[in-house]
Amino acid sequence: MSRILEIIGNVVMFGFLLGFVGWIFWRALQRSTDPPQLIFKWILTAVALCLLFTVAVPGFRHGASDAVFGLVLTLIFGLAMTVVWRHSITDIVADRLASLYDGGTEPPEPKPYYSVAQAKRKLNRPLEAIIAIREQLAKFPNDYEGIMLLAAIQAEDTKDLASAGMTLNHFCDQPNPPPKQFAAAMNQLADWHLKLAQDVDSARAALEKIIARFPDTEMSLLAAQRIAHLGGTEKQMLASLDRQPKAVPEGVKSAGLLDSMRSLAPSETDPGKLAADFVKHLEQHPLDTEAREKLAVIYADHYQRLDLATGELNQLIETPNQPGKRVAHWLNLLADLQVRLGADYPTVRGTLERIVEQFPNLAAGEMARTRLGRLKIEIKTRKETPDVKLGVYEQNIGLKRGLTR
């Protein structure tokens, strides 16, 4: 029984060895640049080995002149193998060294190439460029670079904004598009609607797709910010299309003879009117961070109402998914307003400590730690140089809204 197991084990081992050698030969044949020549080398090597083991090795056993003949035959075999395999051995050694720099013989990762399409575009051949891009997209259908390049040629070169919209919407309507690529595509489509077609409604629709697809994210906040400012963009476009002649008032005569030029200075915008406009704007666009920040500054500087300014800035700071850089900016602004309006040391310190706690390893946290070290001096200096009040304003200004904080 043990003899049978031994035979079976030897057969299995021989089969495994034969398969391994066959796999090595097959790999070498696949990677060879000249397979017929490689097969010829193998056949020549096999014949030489047969002669070596059938003639030279028995001569060594017999001794005397037969051993000398076997030695000569062995040297001839070695020389022949050197001639046959010298290039292959050199290539193996050289490839190992070269692979450290050029990646070896591994095939490059397949990727689309748009150099032909870009060259056609520069030559003002947009249709040929579109054909070249579609050839690449047929192999890589969801390649973001190719889709954006195709849409750009359609919108900017062929003036076919509808096709550009279809291209980007088709990309964004796939089941799981990359969020950043989705947002970039819709923002670019909104830009084209505004720039090429003066179509604010279509631009708004493109931005609203970002909010609907990725709600409560930084991308949706940025999209909401853009939507909040589309009204001003629309007014500018309408004004550019409907240009009416404007009467220029006559300038002041003999201005150089006046005792003071103060009367010639342009009148400043009423902060109260600005605040009211911001309040009304924020009722429609509560996520407009720029308007809310400006409103907080007006509350602090014009009305001396630190409580209202703090409420507006805290609403910005506590909004989820805001970029950390912006949160740190608002906390620093809150600390500035607190120092400016005479808040006590613990209040300002608490604001700066919030920056340190939220951003301990960032530059904002390090700057806050530095500012904490000189905060008492900053507050003392501020108290010694108070601002000159130009007037007394009504404190119950009626601008505080009943919004949920």
Give a written overview of the molecule.
- This protein is mainly α and 405 residues long.
- It has four domains: 1-30; 37-87; 116-240, Tetratricopeptide repeat domain (Serine Threonine Protein Phosphatase 5, Tetratricopeptide repeat, Alpha Horseshoe), CATH 1.25.40; 288-384, Serine Threonine Protein Phosphatase 5, Tetratricopeptide repeat.
- It is built from 18 helices and no strands.
- The protein has helices spanning 2-31, 35-62, 64-102, 115-122, 126-139, 144-157, 161-172, 179-196, 200-213, 218-228, 230-241, 271-284, 289-301, 306-317, 324-340, 345-358, 363-373, 375-384.
- α7 runs antiparallel to α8, α9 packs antiparallel against α10 (218-228) and α16 packs antiparallel against α17.
In short:
With 405 residues, this protein is mainly alpha-helical. The chain has helices at 2-31, 35-62, 64-102, 115-122, 126-139, 144-157, 161-172, 179-196, 200-213, 218-228, 230-241, 271-284, 289-301, 306-317, 324-340, 345-358, 363-373, 375-384.
